[in-house]
Structure formats: structure tokens, C-alpha cells
Amino acid sequence: MRSFDYYIVVEHPELGKVRTIRGATAEEVEQKARAQMIAWDEQYARKLEAAARQAKRQETELSKAKALELTRDYARARDRLENILRETLAIDDTIDWDALLDRRSFDEPEPEPPPGPVLPPEPEPPPFRPSFWARWSSRARRRARERWEQTVAAQRAVWHEECERIRRDHESALDKWRSERAAWLERKMEFLERQTARNAAIEAQKIRYMNKDPDAVAEYCDMVLSRSDYPPEITKDFHVDYDPERGTLVVDYVPPSEDTLPMIREVKYVPSREEFESKPLGKREADRFYNRVICSIALRTLHELFEADRADALKDCVFNGFVDFVDHRDGRKKKTCILTVRAEKSRFAAIDLANVDPCECVHSLGALCAPNLRDRIPVKPMLQLSRDDPRFVPELDLGERIEAGMNVAALGWEEFEHLVRMILEKEVAAGGGEVKITRASRDAGVDAVIFDPDPIRGGKIVVQAKRYTNTVGVSVVRDLYGTILNEGASKGILITTSRFGPDAYDFAKNKPIVLIDGNNLLYLLEKQGLKAKIDLDEAKRLGVGLQRFR
Q1: For residue 416, which of 132, 392, 467, 514 is within the disulfide window of CB 3.0 to 4.6 Å?
Q2: Does 192 or 6 have the greater pLDDT score?
Q3: Which SS3 state, helix, strand or coil, does residue 485 take?
């Protein structure tokens, strides 16, 4: 029998295996151990390869499932877009004037008065206990009595001092409370005044609309279309104009380009390339889908306007669909009308929109458009929208009147607004933009309006110019945000000669609001070669608004 005098314990942690190898010599044990470790390593490598293949299969399956879900997402998005007309039929598009009213209560709690002072109880004097000797000596007794009275007096003095301190602290707390309450009352009155003014403006707008005031009718229709809830693929970009003599509303609408629509038929995952591959819709299917979406937008716009017409101000409505695109022949941005349709209110009311084909319905109304709207073949609008607004005033040229070192903060309000118009117009002129100044008596919270044709950053932009010498608070920025919503604007710009408080910046965060303070205003002026200054102290001494151009 062989004698196994040598042994070694080998293990493979990854496989979780352990083995004791024995042999007659050390060389034999080492050779067996190496052979065993090689076998285990090969076994572990096969295990890793199998795990990798399994992980790859799982990753491929997950990617295929993701591709399938993306395909379904595109299909669901197209389905919703094709049904945006039916989607609005269950919604009452009439503006609820009462819902626009601000009925909030002033929710800041009133400061609580401090509790009344709690005085410590008057201390009881210690009992007078004369010493044995004082009982027999009148002199000693008198001295003991004096010491006792001094102790009582000192004790009462400490008590009086503590009471006075408590009364002083209470009076100081009362003064602080009175100051805080006065500030609270001021904020409450300011809140109620703004609320009352805002609600009064809404009521006045309602009365003007019901009386068929042309501006009010246009503003109301703008509000109706602004509140219409479209899928995210459709960015609302429109402008309305009202002809009171004919009772005609003209809507210039920029429908979505095909680049923003879900024009993908299928998404597949290609394992060999480890990437997703998108297959677009076929031309016929893409043409049909795009035509249906644009025609649905036109019919939905007409329906919402007619349904919301509680003042019976609209006899008919013209929808002009404009598209922005880059002409690859010359590389220039262009805008052209690809669809125009005019609908009479009474005739339109007889149409059952729930059962129509949008494209056939639009053509039955006498629309002018090419058979395929994706071809962007221009047509002449049945009525052209005018950007003339009764609120707009003629431009005032200030370029030559701005002298070096002139204090912008001391300009008259009218000159300051025209200066703002001039600055902004030069900023947007390169893209074909236009800036209009409004009349002070009818500006509805708008000092200027920018019409920017840029398809991405453009649209209607409202501007407020505040020639202030004090810090601009959040209330002004909040009012601008309300104006943006009321005007159906894409953005708002607030320009001031002073500065904005932290609360103003906090409110404007994540909102379509641009804040331009005095320093940035000077930067824009200098950028256009105008050397001016802003001296708020000088403006206060002169009286803001008193210095006028001659």
C-alpha cells in the first residue's frame, strides 16, 4: 500500500469548492493541485460565459421590449393627435368669468400679541428671631431688628427690580408685536387692494366683452384658444383679430411642423449593432396623418371659438394656417399659408363634428389648400390678419436724443417706454421681429408687444417697462405673469431701471419671464452704442418722470 505522507488543501472561492489533495511526494501533491485548479478555472470560465450569454439574451429581450413600447407610444401619440377634435367636444370652452375671480383669503396668520406679564409673588419676610442675648439686651435687640429690616428691604428691592424687568420686557414685546401687526395689516391691505383691482378688471373685461367691445372680443377669443389643452406635440402659436363691422374673427395659426409630430411607424432593436432603428411612416400614411392633424386643429379652433361665443359677437371665423420652414433652395426661413378656411357660425353649428372626417369636412367648408399639406404649397388667406392694435401708438425715435451720460432713470415714462422699444427692436430685428408700444390708457398691463416670427423662441411677447427707483418686488412680477396668461403670450419681459428683490427672482424661476434690471439695461444700451447712466439718487432728487425731452 502506498504511503501518502504529503497533502495540501486547495479551494476555488468563486465556485465554492474545497479539496484535500494527498500524495507520496511534495512534487506529486503540487502537480495534482495545479491540475485541479486548472480544471476548476476552466469550469469557472464556462460558467462566466454562460452567465454573459444569459445577460446578453436578457438585455436583448429588454431592448426589444423597449423598442416595442416605443412603437406603441408613437402609435398612441398619433391616435390622440388624430382625435384632438373629438377630444374637445366633451369640454365646454366658454370662459367661466367667476372662476377667473381671485377669491383667495389672505392666508398669512395675524401676529399673536404677547401674553400678559407674569409677576413673581411678593416675597414673605423672614421671621424675626432675636438671639438669646438680644432677648435680654435692648441694645442688642435693636441692632438685630435693624439687620432684619435691612434684609427684608433688600429682599423687596430685588423683587421690585425683577418686576420692573418683566414689565419692560413685556412692553418691548408689545412694541414689537404692534410693529409686526402694522406691517401685517399693510400687507393684507395691499393684497386685498390688488385682489379687488384684479377682480374689478375681470368684471370690467366681462362687461366690455358682453357689450361686444372689439378689443374685449379679441382678448376673449385669445383667452379661449390659450386655455385649450392640446397634446405636448402641439405648441400653440396664434394671433387673433376681430372685425366688429362684419362680426368676423381672423385667426392666424402656426400648426406644428412634421418634425415635431410622431412620424415614426416602428422602432426595432438591432442586436448585431446594439442600437435602435426607427422606421418612418410611409409617404402616403405620413401625408394622411399630417393632413388630418392640421385639419383637426382648424376645425377644433372654429368649434371652440363658436361654442364660447356667449356675447354672440361672431358671425363667421377665418382660420389661416401658416407654417414656418427653411427653404432648402436658398437656406432662408420662410412662412407661408398652407390652409385657409372660412366658416359661418350658423352653418358650422349644424355639423356633427363627432362623426366627420376632418379633411373632408374642411374641404366641404370651401377651404383653400393643396391636396397634400406637407408640400407647403402657398395659398392666399381669405382674410389677412392685421397686427394693427388700437392699443399701439406711433414710434418715437430717441436714438439721436440719448446723450452721453444721460440718466435713464430720470426720463419721462413715455420716453422710457419708447427707449425700451428701440432697444428690443434692435435685438429682435435680425430675426424679422417687430416691437409695438401701447397706449397708456388701454395697455391692459402691457407697455409693449414683440412679434417674433422665430418658430422656436418666438411668438407674442409682452413687455412691461418700470422706471422705478426702488427695488421691484414680487407683486409686479406676479402681475406680469397674469398678463402673459391673459394675453396668450409665449413670454414676458420686465425691464426696470432699479433692481429686483430675491422674491421676484424666486417667483420668475421656471416661468416664461425674463427680468432685466438696471445693470443689464445699461449693458443693452452700450451694446447698441448708447452711452447712458442710471443714477437712482439723482432721479429721486429730481422727481422721477419730471425730466422730459424737449
Answers
A1: 467
A2: 192
A3: helix
